[in-house]
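The protein record filed here:
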Amino acid sequence: MKLGRNDICWCGSGKKYKSCHLMMDEKLEQMKLKGFKIPTKKMIKTPLQIEGIREASRINTMVLDYITPYVKEGVSTEELDKLIYDYTKSINAVPACLGYEGYPKSVCISVNDVVCHGIPSADTILKDGDIVNIDCTTMYNGFFGDSSRMFMIGNVDPVWEKLVNDTKKALDLGVEACKPYCTIGDIGYAINSFAKEQGYSVVREIGGHGVGLAIHEDPYVSHIGLPGKDYVIAPGMTFTIEPMINLGAPDIYQDAEDGWTIYTEDGSPSAQWEYTLLMTEKGVEILAQ
C-alpha cells in the first residue's frame, strides 16, 4: 500500500512519512528507473534497530581490544578462543560464531595461508613470523556487530607485513568509496583496483554482507566490482566490508575434513580486515572495527 505524505513512516520512527523516508524513497525510485539495483525495505534498518546494532558493534570492538595483548608468540589459538568466550560472557554478550551453522568455536582465527574460518585449536601455536586474523561477531541484546583485525607475531617477513598493511589500506579505500547512494560495485572496484596495483589478488568467492539483525544478511558485498553496479547503498543500511587479499593467486579451497577452514590454493599468505558500517544521509559511519 502506497503511503501518503502525512501517514506514519514505514520505518517505525513514528514520524510522518514526508518528514522521514519520503525523499529517500523518491530518490531510490528515480535510480531504479535509471537501471540501478535498489535495496529492499528489509535491508534498511529502523532507528531503533540501528541503535541496537551500534551498541552490539561497540561491544564487539571491546572484545577485539581485550584480546589484542594476548595475541603473541607461544599462545595457542584455542587459548585465545577461550579468553574471548570468557570475556564476552562476562560483559553479558554472546559470542555469535559459537554454534552458528555448527561452527564449534567462539571466533575464527586464521593464520598465514588460512584465508578465513580458521578453527581455534590447541595444536595451532602462534610463532615468530606468523600473520593472524581474528574475526569476531558478537550478539548483544539480540543485535550483531562484526569485525576482524590482523596481528603480526614477532619478526614478520617484510613482504608479508606489506600485505597486512596494504589490506588495511584496501579496506579504508573501500570505506572512502562509501557515499550515500553509492553502489556495492563502487566499493569492490576501489578495493580490487588498489590490490591489483600492489600485485595482489582479491578472493572472489567470499565477501562482506548485511549484518545487524542476524550474522549474515543481504546484500552480499563483493570486493571485486564495477562502478555503478550491484545494489545501491542507501541510508539506514548496515553491512560489512572485509576484503581477503592474497599475496599469490586468488584461488581458495575448503578443508574437506572440518568443513570450515578456507586456504589459499597455492599456499601463499592471505590477510583480511573487517568493519561493520552504517550508511547515513551524511556519509558512512564505522560501527565495529
Notes: The first strand starts at residue 94 and ends at 95. DSSP finds five helices and 17 strands in the chain. Helices lie at 22-33, 47-67, 77-90, 158-176, 184-197. The longest helix spans residues 47-67.
